[in-house]
Design goal:
It is built from twelve helices and two strands, in the order ααααββαααααααα.
């Protein structure tokens, strides 16, 4: 339906342009009678296009000012309970819900991250639930499903965004998809340069390279970890890592 509206709006513009060209060729100005004729000839297109524009504005206003804020509030209330169980490492309950919890309106059955992500996908809490669901699935050994949820999550946060990408790497490592894991670890390390996620995923990528016996690649990352992030926790034993890959790879 929206495509039809766009096409009709385009027709309005095209009709007006064509009419202007015709009128300018015959005379320099359009008199009131000519303008009336133009409107009568094209009334359906103009009225439909204008009505469509008003309808779009009305729908957008309702969505932005009334419907979405209500959804945000509901989703925020629901995710509160799931996060509490998540923080207690009750990953199955946090993921699937189903237990009774107290609320301002009396006892209710809480929703898990899966349902919140599905029911409130247009909200911030709904999108964040994909991230939490991915972690819960990763922690409970459902690695492929974890990847699916984490891939749905998209954030710009300096810490959360690279963590989500890196967790996809973790799930791939568990599935023995080492090449995929390396790809995601490197992507996570570059997503946001900081003193926590960057060295964390550089080390994980280097370790994954070791699993493939690609020791030169691992050495390059360990040396970067040492030179650029030497004061971080991830680099605490980097000298040992460097010595190990040099020995295993027979690298001088």
């Amino acid at each position: 339906m929206s495509e039809d509206l766009v096409q009709n709006d385009k027709k309005v513009v095209e009709v007006i342009k064509e009419e202007k060209i015709k009128k300018s060729q015959s005379k320099k100005s359009i008199d009131l009678e000519g303008l009336q004729d133009f409107y009568e000839d094209n009334k359906k297109v103009i009225t439909y296009g204008g009505g469509a524009l008003l309808a779009i504005i009305a729908i957008f206003s309702f969505y932005k000012l009334y419907w979405l804020p209500g959804q945000e509030k509901e989703a925020g209330n629901e995710i509160f309970y799931a996060q509490n169980y998540f923080e207690r490492d009750s990953f199955n309950i946090a993921l699937n819900g189903g237990v009774n919890v107290p609320s301002s309106e009396g006892p209710k059955t809480m929703m898990g991250f899966k349902d919140i992500a599905d029911s409130y996908s247009s909200t911030k809490s709904g999108r964040l639930s994909n991230y939490y669901a991915g972690i819960c699935l990763l922690r409970t050994g459902k690695y492929q499903e974890a990847i699916e949820y984490l891939e749905k999550f998209n954030a710009k946060d300096e810490m959360v965004a690279p963590m989500a990408i890196g967790l996809i790497g973790d799930a791939n490592m568990e599935l023995n998809n080492v090449d995929e894991a390396i790809k995601y670890y490197l992507s996570a390390s570059e997503k946001s340069t900081n003193q926590f996620t960057t060295p964390l995923f550089l080390r994980k990528a280097a370790f994954a390279y070791e699993q493939k016996s690609e020791f030169k690649e691992a050495l390059g990352l360990y040396e970067r970890l040492k030179n650029e992030y030497g004061k971080t926790e991830e680099a605490r034993e980097v000298e040992k890592y460097i010595a190990r890959v040099k020995t295993l790879g027979n690298i001088d």
